[in-house]
Design brief:
Pathway: Purine metabolism; 7-cyano-7-deazaguanine biosynthesis. There is one protein chain. α8 packs antiparallel against α10. The chain is of the alpha+beta class. The protein is built from eleven helices and ten strands.
């Protein structure tokens, strides 16, 4: 029994997740023939315009396995060839709506494209995650769980704050918060990442109305927070110190309800205060997005 446990420990100790990046450029259009032009415009906005629009996609393929005698999970030359043969050579400079039969039944949204790429690669590679960037401010994660996917939007706002507790003296606040306790505050250009989870609609290919999601984040967070002095302009921070951690928690609490009304659920809020400091908080609901996979895939700030 002990030998079996030791072998299991040794096997897990030699497991590793590797990541391969690939690039392709393609165009697509969000349009359902069974809907009228007005209905398509209402549902998809500018993405319904003829003849479509394009993106420079960035694809990350994450694979898990044990190290072999050569210190590799997989030979990266083989991985590169498989991704090229099964995905990028077919999608690069293609019109996605027509390139694969899967997109005759369901539109090639970012999240749906990530799901179909998984299906194309899974027979050939030990995939644990597909991450697909449509742009630096929009990307999807797919973990192989039926129609469930994750969609992240990135936005930004500029705000000032002061880190100090009213119950403490200036000297005590300086001891805790350093220069951040100075009485007139200081500012940051905050970058905000909002990740939602949900089921991909089998016809529209969307897990949430992207335009509606962007409006919720804009109206609930960006508009009131942008060019504000958080301590004075946001009532919540009248008594709560606006550290990056507390700001992220407050944003999570503000967004959870409105996002639920869109038919998705808020999964994670990440607030990047500077290139050196960031905070991320998760909603309490259980999720399949495991921390080991999260840590293994490169995060683009």
């Amino acid at each position: 029994m002990r030998d079996s446990q030791s072998r299991d420990r040794d096997r897990h100790a030699m497991e590793c997740i590797i990541n391969r990046r690939a690039l392709f450029s393609a165009s697509h259009r969000y349009w359902l023939p069974e809907l009228s032009e007005a209905e398509n415009q209402k549902l998809f906005g500018a993405c319904a315009r003829f003849p479509g629009h394009g993106h420079n996609y960035v694809l990350y393929v994450s694979m898990r396995g044990e190290l072999d005698e050569y210190g590799m999970v997989l030979n990266l030359s083989d991985v590169k060839r498989v991704i090229k043969d099964e995905v990028t050579s077919q999608l690069d400079y293609a019109y996605l709506n027509d390139v694969w039969p899967e997109f005759q039944a369901s539109l090639p949204t970012t999240e749906n494209l990530a799901r179909v790429i998984w299906q194309r690669l899974a027979p050939h590679l030990p995939i644990v995650r597909i991450q697909l960037f449509e742009s630096p401010s929009l990307w999807a994660d797919y973990l192989g769980q039926a129609m469930e996917a994750y969609l992240t939007i990135q936005t930004h706002f500029s705000a000032a704050h002061r880190l100090a507790k009213e119950s403490l003296s200036f000297e005590e606040n300086c001891e805790i918060y350093g220069k951040c306790a100075r009485p007139h505050g200081h500012g940051h250009n905050y970058h905000l990442e909002v990740t939602v989870a949900g089921e991909i609609d089998p016809r529209t290919g969307m897990l949430a109305d992207l335009a509606a999601l962007q409006r919720v984040v804009q109206d609930t967070v960006v508009e009131p927070f942008d060019h504000s002095f958080l301590n004075k302009d946001i009532p919540y921070f009248a008594e709560v110190v606006p550290t990056a951690e507390n700001i992220a928690v407050h944003i999570r609490d503000l967004l959870a309800g409105p996002i639920r009304e869109l038919g998705a659920r808020l999964y994670k809020v990440k607030l990047i205060e500077s290139p050196n400091n960031s905070a991320e908080v998760y909603c309490p609901q259980p999720s399949r997005l495991s921390s080991d996979v999260e840590a293994a895939v490169p995060v683009l700030l």
